[in-house]
Write a structure and sequence with these properties.
Layout (H helix, E strand, L loop, with lengths): L13 E5 L14 H10 L4 E5 L4 H8 L12 E4 L4 E4 L2 E3 L4 H5 L1 H16 L11 E3 L4 E3 L8 H14 L1 H12 L5 E4 L6 E5 L8 H4 L6 E6 L9 H5 L4 E4 L3 H12 L2
Parallel strand pairs: 1-2, 1-10, 2-3, 10-11
Antiparallel strand pairs: 3-4, 4-5, 6-7, 7-9, 8-9
The chain binds 1-O-phosphono-alpha-D-mannopyranose.
The site of 1-O-phosphono-alpha-D-mannopyranose (M1P) has 15 residues, from loops.
GO biological process, one term: dolichol phosphate mannose biosynthetic process
GO molecular function: metal ion binding; phosphomannomutase activity; protein homodimerization activity
Enzyme class: isomerase
């Protein structure tokens, strides 16, 4: 399906933004052909973008169709909450976490996390407990090398034992003066970024574009979830979904696609 210019779409002043994991795809898995078809149809009528917490390489894996560059498949691509941003395939200027926090404070934070994780008694530990990204640092008590099955098991274990919540509370107490937000968004980790650099950060990239309506669809729209701030933001109309199938069904109803 050829992409038509924004001004020729049925609602050229409307932007629809999507969270990735749990909204466009199952957590950390790939987009389905049905969802791709649905998004292509949607892109005929409105502007379409994604805003995910992960870095762009993961979104490329999850959202790319036959290796196509994901930033060309959406009008707006926002990785790391918009700290890495693309508009019509062109990269926009962004800030960085390390510039904000500085090396000394960053190392205090990381050292604390690694000591804390070393002392944790959990059923499984794998590798990559700290993932350094452009706009945030992602911390995982089990480690980002966990398999899909190990992820699921950790998520269930965490629901009972509050491993991430307790760790985040310890970090808030220890580093309360750093101006950071700790956000539990996915299955095995939490994101750490300067307060305000949540998903609402991406809205500054679209603010001057003249959109009259901005819809946001996400699954973690509850207080403390990583979709909460943008879902609640007065600049967006928020929609809560339960899974990618629910996203498609709400889109079909709302936009008659
Ligand atoms: O998009 C939600 C989250 O997805 C991943 O979380 P997890 O690996 O814990 O399932 C991470 O990329 C995280 O940064 C992101 O917020």
């Amino acid at each position: 399906m050829a992409v038509i210019p924004i001004e020729e779409r049925r609602f050229p002043k409307t932007l629809v933004l999507f969270d990735v994991d749990g909204t466009l795809t199952p957590s950390r898995l790939n987009i389905s052909p049905e969802m791709l078809d649905c998004l292509q149809k949607l892109r005929q009528v409105v502007a379409v973008g994604f805003v995910g917490g992960s870095d762009l390489s993961k979104q490329q894996e999850q959202l790319s169709v036959s290796g196509e560059n994901v930033v060309n498949s959406f009008d707006y691509s926002f990785a790391e909450n918009g700290l890495t941003a693309y508009r019509y395939g062109q990269q926009l200027a962004s800030q960085s976490f390390i510039q904000y926090i500085g090396e000394e404070r960053y190392q205090k934070l990381v050292n604390f996390c690694l000591h804390y994780i070393a002392d944790l008694n959990i059923p499984v530990k794998r590798g990559t407990f700290v993932e350094f990204r452009n706009g945030m640092v992602n911390i995982s008590p089990i480690g980002r090398n966990a398999s899909t099955e190990e992820r699921r098991e950790f998520e269930q274990f965490d629901k009972v034992h509050n491993i991430r919540l307790n760790m985040v509370n310890a970090l808030r107490e220890k580093f309360g003066d750093y101006g950071l937000t700790f956000s539990i968004g996915g299955q095995i980790s939490f994101d750490v970024f300067p307060t305000g650099w949540d998903k609402t950060y991406c809205l500054q990239h679209v603010q001057k574009e003249g959109f009259e309506t901005i819809h946001f669809f996400g699954d973690k729209t509850f207080t403390g979830g990583n979709d909460y701030e943008i879902f609640e933001d007065p600049r967006t109309i928020g929609h809560t979904v339960t899974c990618p199938e629910d996203t498609m069904s709400q889109l079909r109803e709302l936009f008659h696609i």
